[in-house]
Amino acid sequence: MPIAADLLAIMPFPDIDPIAFSIGPLAIHWYGLAYVAGILLGWAYARRLAANESLWPGNVSPISRTQLDDFIVWAALGVVLGGRLGYIFFYDLPAVLRSPIRALEIWNGGMSFHGGLTGTTIAMILFARRNAIPIWSLFDIVATVVPFGLFFGRIANFINGELWGRLTDVPWAVVFPTGGPFARHPSQLYEAGLEGIVLLLVLAALVYGMRALKSPGFITGVFVCGYALSRIFVEFFREPDAQLGYLLGTNWLTMGMVLSSPMILLGLWAMLRARRQAALQL
Asked: Of 149, 160, 163, 147, nearest to 31 (Cα)?
């Protein structure tokens, strides 16, 4: 049986131009559209959640639609600035120190989810304090809608032929233009399915089926823990960043695993805290 490294294309890569369309000299990339789609769909869903007062503690929504409209700018800045800075510090710092201009070259590596999460968390804390909004409820709203952005972002990664998976001989393997003449796991699609679709459905079931938003912080904990478990699982199929490689042994520890592991404990703590607080109010 031939080893995976000897296999050529099992399934041809759908050669989609990373540029969706152009307006004169301005090129609109699928990656940028993915961010826009994720933010707009998340915003629309968040407005629907905020308007349904029966979902919230005391049947009173913690945030108005007008406040959500204002927050979208804060969230966008947190995602973009945090995501880019996170990538630089977690994955590309030596190269940026050698050539600082590289920090502005988003096409060289792109964004980090963990950095974007940190940036958005800071934006949420500042916005909540400024507008007297319960911080855990704001966390819950954002956590519920983040899977939209994760789904579209991973689809854009697939279209761009980046962040591809490890060598494999599974029937659905793909040969990516930038990954050599070898069949690889389409790990971007695995992440889109787990971090996007599955996590979105789980959170929606908890929100509408179990009224989990009435326990502020519980949805946040489920999201953080669910994302971490999904990311760690997919890391076993995803090729690590070339400049980092495996951090421990062969085909083992990756930076994605290292950054995601503490999130499991953080998510469990948030869920336990939310349940404890809800019990005290009974």
From this structure: 160
- Which amino acid, residue 266? L
Q: In degrees to the nearest 10, what's the CA dihedral of 82, 86, 87, 90?
A: 180
Q: Is 154 annotated as a binding residue?
A: yes
| pLDDT tens figures, 145-155 | 999 999 998 99
- CB under 8 Å to 98, separation ≥6 — which residues? none
Q: Quick one: pLDDT band at residue 5, thresholds 50, 70, 90?
A: very low
Q: Would you state the structure tokens that stand for residue 36, as one six-digit string?
A: 């826009």
User: Nearest Cα to 133, choosing from 66, 225, 38?
Assistant: 66
Provide the CA 204 distance to its chain's centre, in angstroms.
Answer: 17
Residue 27's beta-bridge partner residues? 22
Q: Per this entry, what is the length of the chain?
A: 282
pLDDT tops 70 at residue 122: yes
The whole-angstrom separation of Cα 137 and Cα 119 is 18
